[in-house]
Design goal:
By secondary structure, the protein is mainly α. 74% of the residues lie in helices and 1% in strands.
C-alpha cells in the first residue's frame, strides 16, 4: 500500500471488500474472470481519489465507499475491453484475462462490470453523480474509438494524441475527484477545483505511462516494454521524435507505427532518448502535475488534501 493510501486505510479496505462482494453472479465464469482481474491488484488510484476528495470536502456518510467501488468497476471494465482490442497478453505482471479466458468472455464480463456499476450507482441515488458517470463512460468510449482510428497513423498530431488521453485516461480521474466532492455537497468552486485536479492528474499519469513504455522494464511495469509501438500507437515520445529527429529517424518511426511490431524496438528507443522525446514528455507531465497541485491551493487543509498533493508528485516519480 502506497503512503497516500494510509490516510484512508480503513475506508480503502471497505472498498476492496465491497468490490469482492459485488462480483457475485449466478454465472461462475463471470465471478471467475471478475475475481481474476480484481485480484491482480494495481494501484487503485481512481477509487482512492473518490475517498480523498470526499473526505477533504468534509463528507461524513458512507456512500463514498460504494462510489469508489463503482469507479473501480468502470476502470476494470475498460481494461478488459482494452486488452481485447489491443490483443495484449500481459498486465500487472501476469496474463491478461483475454489471454487466459478468451476474448468473448472478457468482453462480456466487462459489460457485466459496467452494468453492475450502474446498479450500484442507482442505489446511491444522486442524479448529478449519475450524470457525471454516464457522461464519463460515453467519453471514454469515444476515446477508445479515436485511439483505434489513430493506430497505425504516423501523421497523428500532438493535439490529437492529447485528445485521446484526455478521454481515455484523464476523464475517469476527473470523474473520481469530481463525484467525491459532489457527494460531499461541496460548493461549486470546490467541485470545479476537484474536477480540474482530477483532469490534470490523469493527464500526468498517462504521459508518464507513455514515457515508461520506452524507458521502463517489463518487471516494473507489469506489461511488455514497447507495447504501444507493437500496437502502432503514436504516443507523444514517437510524435515528438518524428517532428524533431532526422529524416532517417522520422522514417524509422513512421514505418514502425504504420506496420506495428517490435523489429526495430532497440533502435527506436535509442532514437527517442537521443532526440529528447522522453524529457519533453516528462516536461508535459510535470506541467499537468503542477497544475493539479495548483488546483488544491486555497482549499481547506487536511490530511486528505495533503495526500492528493503527494499523489501529484507520485505521478511523476513512479517507475510503474
Amino acid at each position: 500500500m502506497l503512503p497516500f493510501h494510509e490516510v484512508v486505510k480503513s475506508q480503502f479496505d471497505q472498498v476492496n471488500e465491497l468490490i469482492v462482494n459485488q462480483l457475485y453472479s449466478d454465472v461462475g465464469l463471470v465471478e471467475n474472470i471478475g475475481q481474476y482481474i480484481i485480484d491482480a491488484g494495481g494501484k487503485r488510484l481512481r477509487p482512492l481519489l473518490v475517498l480523498l476528495a470526499a473526505n477533504s470536502c468534509g463528507y461524513k456518510g458512507d456512500k463514498h465507499i460504494a462510489l469508489a467501488a463503482i469507479i473501480e468497476f468502470i476502470h476494470t471494465a475498460t481494461l478488459l475491453h482494452d486488452d481485447v482490442v489491443d490483443t495484449s497478453d500481459l498486465r500487472r505482471g501476469r496474463a491478461t484475462a483475454n489471454a487466459r479466458f478468451g476474448n468473448a468472455p472478457s468482453v462480456l464480463v466487462g459489460d457485466f462490470l459496467y452494468s453492475r456499476a450502474f446498479q450500484m450507482l442507482v442505489a446511491i441515488g444522486n442524479m448529478e453523480i449519475m450524470r457525471i458517470i454516464a457522461d464519463t463512460t460515453n467519453i471514454i468510449s469515444e476515446g477508445e474509438v479515436q485511439q483505434l482510428i489513430n493506430a497505425g497513423n504516423p501523421d497523428t498530431t500532438e493535439q490529437a494524441y492529447e485528445e485521446v488521453i484526455r478521454k481515455k485516461t484523464a476523464q475517469l480521474f476527473e470523474a473520481a475527484a469530481h463525484t467525491g466532492a459532489v457527494l460531499a455537497g461541496a460548493d461549486e468552486h470546490i467541485c470545479e477545483a476537484m474536477r480540474r485536479y482530477g483532469y490534470h492528474l490523469g493527464m500526468a499519469f498517462q504521459l508518464v505511462d507513455d514515457a515508461l513504455d520506452y524507458n521502463g522494464t517489463t518487471e516494473a511495469l507489469g506489461k511488455n516494454v514497447g507495447d504501444d509501438l507493437a500496437e502502432g500507437k503514436p504516443t507523444l515520445p514517437l510524435i515528438y521524435t518524428m517532428q524533431n529527429g532526422s529524416v532517417e529517424e522520422a522514417e524509422l518511426i513512421r514505418t514502425a507505427i504504420s506496420e506495428g511490431g517490435l523489429e526495430h524496438l532497440d533502435a527506436i528507443i535509442q532514437t527517442i532518448q537521443r532526440c529528447g522525446a522522453l524529457d519533453y514528455t516528462m516536461q508535459r507531465a510535470k506541467h499537468h502535475a503542477d497544475e493539479a497541485k495548483r488546483c488544491l491551493s486555497g482549499l481547506p487543509v487536511s490530511a486528505e488534501l495533503n495526500a492528493m498533493d503527494e499523489l501529484a508528485d507520485f505521478s511523476l516519480s513512479r517507475s510503474f
